[in-house]
Design goal:
This protein is α/β, with parallel strands linked by helices and about 130 residues long. About 45% of the residues lie in helices and about 20% in strands. It has a single domain, classed as 3-Layer(aba) Sandwich (Rossmann fold), CATH 3.40.50. Strands 2-1-3-4-5 form a five-stranded parallel beta sheet, sandwiched between helices. Strand 4, helix 4 and strand 5 form a beta-alpha-beta unit.
């Protein structure tokens, strides 16, 4: 189990259209020391991404307007200075192996199925950052 400040110093962008899930993820990450910016759409995320320069992006897949697959492909096409190499986690209700492969091929580093336990979410974020070789 991670320490209470496992995510201290991390700047995380959460992209989630569901208000309750967005609040849950934000609350969990902030309780473990992260600074979180949460937005409800891919369009809103693109508006803040380059200025925010998050360490980690956590993004829903099934969002209205633009899904997470399309969004991460657009992010990966950006220059690193604009956020193109941000560590990215797909947090989604689409949880089968085909969805996992699709998320990884689109540009996410990992795929996490909803619902996710708070401790598991913190561990996934902390491990991704620790294992980062960018």
């Amino acid at each position: 189990m991670q320490s209470p400040v496992a995510l201290a110093g991390l700047n995380i962008l959460v992209v989630e259209d569901d208000d309750d899930i967005r609040l849950f993820v934000t609350t969990v990450l902030e309780a473990d020391g992260a600074t979180v910016t949460a937005v409800e759409s891919a369009a809103a995320a693109r508006e803040v991404l380059s200025q925010l320069q998050p360490d980690v992006l956590i993004c829903d897949i099934g969002m209205p307007g633009e899904d997470g697959y399309t969004f991460i492909r657009k992010i990966r096409a950006l220059k690193p200075s604009m956020g193109g190499r941000v560590l990215a986690i797909a947090l989604t209700a689409y949880g089968d192996s085909e969805d996992r492969i699709r998320a990884l091929e689109a540009g996410f580093h990992t795929h996490v199925s909803k619902p996710v336990a708070p401790e598991e979410l913190v561990e996934i974020v902390a491990n991704l950052v620790a294992d980062c070789n960018w």
